[in-house]
Amino acid sequence: MKIFKTLERYMEKPDAEYIASGHRACQGCAEVLALRLAFKVLGKDTILAMATGCMEIISTPLPLTCWRLPWIHIAFENTAAVASGIESAIRILTQKGKLENKKINIVGIAGDGGTSDIGFQALSGALERGHRLIYICLDNEAYMNTGIQRSSSTPYGAFTTTSPPGKKSIGQSTWKKDMPKIAAAHNIPYVATACPSYPYDLFNKVKKAKEVNGPAYLHILSVCPTGWRIPSEMAIEYGRLAVRSGVFPLYEVENGVYRITFKPESLIPVKDYIKGQGRFRHLTDKEISEIQDRVNKDWERLTKLCEITKA
Amino acid sequence: MKKVGIEVSLAIAEAAKLARVEVVSAYPITPQTHIVEHLAELVADGELEAAYLNVESEHSALSACVGAAAAGARTFTSTSAQGLELMHEILFIASSLRLPIVMVLVNRALSAPLSIWGDHSDVMAARDCGWIMLFCENGQEAVDSVIMAYRIGEDRRVLLPVAVNIDGFTLSHVIEPVEFPDQELVDSFLPPYKPLFTLNPERPVTMGAYGMPEIYTEAKYAQEMAILNSKAVIKEVMEEFGKVFKRNYRVVETYNLENSELAFLALGSINENIKTAIDILKAKGTNVGLISLRLYRPFPSEELLEVLKNVKRLMVVERAMPQGATNSPLFNELSAFAFHNGLNIIMENYIAGLGGRDVDPQEFVNIALNPFKKDGKLNYKIIGVRE
Amino acid sequence: MAKPMEKYTWRDLNVGCVIDEPGSSLEYKTGDWRNLLPVTDYSKCTKCGLCWLFCPDNAMKPKDDGFFGPDLDYCKGCGICAQECKFAAIQMVEDKK
Ligand SMILES: Cc1ncc(C[n+]2csc(CCOP(=O)(O)OP(=O)(O)O)c2C)c(N)n1
Ligand code: SF4
Ligand code: SF4
Ligand code: SF4
Ligand SMILES: [Mg+2]
Asked: B195 and B320 in one domain?
């Protein structure tokens, strides 16, 4: 398989699957795909701590599990703390000679709700303490597991069941919280955004996250056909549109240096990204142009950040 | 072995060191602080080889302990009042995942009004979280209980977290004579933690899966069996502790109960005051006994029945409010216990020592001599309340 | 092989409900969810593997001849493979199972 050859640059075993089939994610779920791809790079020597959310609930109805890596779920808001505990335990047990001395990736995984809302404090604590762990935020832009309620990561204007558009509301009335930059403000060695629609970019970033000495934060846009109200086959395409329109730029922050990792020659109109999505169906052209302005400004700021922080 | 005078909080930290804890994760709250401060010192000085996590909340403190215990480490945490409430969600998960974390719970009143002083409103709000619960009356018991707690919790027949309760200030901050066992003796009594399952890439397991209605009941029943069956192990461990360290503990302790039909029942260090009252009463010719539950969860039913054999009148003293219930928590449980066991005992419910209020032993003398009679709205008497 | 949930007694569960059979979800056949079935025209296929790469269910499997084909036990019929194939080699057709 020629693709396996290419993938060997990023991973030892391209054909290894660490999430078994038989999981119960919806058809076309790019959140579970994001994990499938990330784990290929992380490989066997990995321990996962996962927050309550879609990926937890689709994976482990007793007595079955789809995980082929050691995995623990405790609660919704504490993944970073749980991962901290695991990392500390592995470190001290290795130091005491009770565990074989080898590198194990400790990975905390939570949704956008579990990260930017209820798990925010625990995450900040873990990043500040400098544990050697990788934190992955799977951003599908709402609380999907509980039925599409808004989170602080839901984009402006989007319909969710708790931000319904109506005579007096546009839908989500706030702008998406900028989690990756908040993570970067902790001055950790590595922060990156990624999307499974750009698998090689994602592989690269997971590989870097795995290699840095200290916390790494990966923010992965994970298209959710169910919550975004798009056809299941379009999950990859919408991730691409989000990136190409500048709505979700792919970038990394390596020791404080910002770098855009995928720069489209010119950004496509935000409207091309928004128009096919049921969650934005109610938006008027005026409202969409408001979003366009915001995206332009954010993009400009990001570009400047890249210039300013360049060594 | 000789006794040293030491603040009980520091003695507890030394006990954790003797137990060779590997991960300490805690968040400061009065009156627990001296324990975690001293542990930090021990780690900083290299006297204790452990990972010390300065987490950002109690919720994270216990969460990190759960993660660490799941990865195979011996873990320690400690908290009080608001901290325990912030942990509340994770208390249930720690016990359901069957992880033998040890927590020293320095009992303190719950807000509001904010009070840093001692009572049992914190532990009573968390009494049914599936943790084994021990109560201590003095510093020596606290030290010994921490060591026993690991041995109990880590026993393959148990695998449950253990909370060691000590009263805030009245126990945590006093200097007491304590005898520290030799490290070698502790090592022989408490072997390294050998978990059944750990998070290890060589043998991947899934922990914390979810249960559908078809299986949840069985999962909870299995856990209930574990805590019920733990009592035999707890007694066994206490007995062995006595053999090794020459200090004997029982799950239900008594004082002057032999010939008395009248008895107090209480938890924790307030028993020291009750004992003083009992001595005063004895000098006056009134024989009163005391029953102290060293073990509160699992509830020591058989042992309690045994000591209640001759008791006709039981005065239950509790440091927690009913909060709208018929009576205070332990009293309600004892009422049900008495009813189900067909006990014909007059039971009286006294509430005392809330938010650190001192209770003069004379108050207990008065209670013993003047039984509480329900005279209106309340089913209990609050000692010393100004109405 | 895990038995059906409703057959488990409390004694059958591991301590702490730990699951020690990694990947046992294979017993749960999500192929039942499928309405549409991916059908590959191998004359158009370049063996690029994108259909394999993008399948959220690892249901597009590499075959000995270098081509890829759906594992009908697990393919949910989402259509991603067909959508992402640059050579339009995959068609989603009604699954008359
Ligand atoms: C303390 C607590 N509050 C609320 C919930 C209910 N809850 C479970 S998952 C979830 C939403 C998860 O959203 P997100 O983190 O974005 O993950 P997703 O399901 O979208 O992947 C909520 C609200 C909970 N389990 N625990
Ligand atoms: S709701 Fe969305 S994120 Fe959750 S499993 Fe379904 S598609 Fe995936
Ligand atoms: S994506 Fe298309 S061309 Fe590539 S391997 Fe699959 S079917 Fe063949
Ligand atoms: S239809 Fe979906 S589930 Fe089936 S093989 Fe294609 S991508 Fe995988
Ligand atoms: Mg989400």
From this structure: no
Identify any residues that bridge with C9 across adjacent strands, giving them in sequence order: none
Domain for residue B44, yes or no?
yes
Domain boundary among B217, B245, B273: B245
Q: Report how many domains make up chain A.
A: 1
Alpha carbon C91 to chain centroid, angstroms = 17
- Ligand 2 pocket test: which of A27, A29, A143, A153 has the largest number of ligand atoms within 8 Å of its C-beta? A29
CATH number, domain at B346?
Answer: 3.40.50.920
Given B245, B269, B285, which residue is the final one in a domain?
B245
Range of the domain at A132: 2-309
| Residue at B387 is within a domain | no
Neighbours of C87 (CB within 10 A): 12
The answer to whether the beta carbons of residues B23 and B64 sit under 8 Å apart is yes
Same-domain pairing of B178 and B260: no
Q: Are residues B176 and B307 in the same domain?
A: no
Q: Given the structure tokens 């074989």, which residue do they identify?
A: A100
Residues of chain B where predicted confidence (pLDDT) is lower than 50: none
In chain B, how many domains are there? 2
Residue B321 is assigned to a structural domain of this protein: yes
Q: Which of B215, B218, B197 has its CA nearest to residue A61?
A: B215
Amino acid identity, residue B238?
A: M
Return all residues near B98 (Cβ < 8 A) that are at least 6 apart. B159, B160, B223, B226, C15, C16
Q: Does residue C5 belong to the interface with chain B, where contact is any CB pair within 8 Å?
A: yes
Give the whole-number percent of chain A exceeding pLDDT 70.
100
Half-sphere exposure of residue B377: CA atoms within 13 angstroms, side-chain side:
3
C chain contacts of residue A20, beta-carbon cutoff 8 Å: 22-26, 58
Tell me, yes or no, whether B55 lies in a domain.
yes
User: What is the distance of C-alpha B277 from the center of its chain?
Assistant: 23
The span from the CA of C52 to the CA of A68, in Å, is 19
What is the H or E stretch that residue B93 is in?
A: helix B81-96
Q: Partners of A220 in the beta sheet?
A: A138, A194
Give residue-wise pLDDT tens across range B233-254.
Answer: 999 999 999 999 999 999 999 9
Whether residue C82 and residue A1 make contact (CB cut-off 8 A), yes or no, is: no
Closest-CA residue, ligand 3 atom 2, reads: C85
Rounded to the nearest angstrom, the distance between the alpha carbon of A3 and the centre of ligand 3 is 11
Give C4's DSSP letter. Answer: P
Verify whether the Cβ–Cβ distance C23 to A67 is below 8 Å.
yes
Judgement on whether residues B195 and B128 belong to the same structural domain of the protein: yes
Statement to judge: residues B26 and B153 lie in one domain: yes
C-alpha dihedral sign at A10, A14, A19, A22: positive
Task: Mark whether B258 and B219 lie in a shared domain.
Answer: no
CATH number of C29-94: 3.30.70.20
The C-alpha atoms of residue C58 and residue C31 are separated, in whole angstroms, by: 12
pTM of the model: 0.98
User: Which chains lie within 8 Å of chain A at 3 or more CB pairs, if any?
Assistant: B, C
Whether B233 contacts chain A with CB within 8 A = no
Q: Which residues have CB under 6 Å of ligand 4?
A: C 38, 55, 57, 59-60, 70, 75-81
Structure tokens belonging to residue B322: 């009913």
Q: Are the C-beta atoms of residues C19 and B209 closer than 8 Å to each other? A: yes
Please give the ipTM for the structure prediction.
0.97
pLDDT at C1: 61
Which residue has tokens 């060691």?
B164
A39-78: pLDDT as tens digits: 999 999 999 999 999 999 999 999 999 999 999 999 999 9
CATH number at residue A237: 3.40.50.970
Domain that holds residue B45: 2-245
* Ligand 2 atom closest to residue A235's alpha carbon, by position in its atom list: 7
Query: How far is the centre of ligand 5, averaged over its atoms, from the C-alpha of A145 (Å)?
Result: 7
B195 and B279 fall within a common domain? no
Mean pLDDT, all residues of chain A: 98
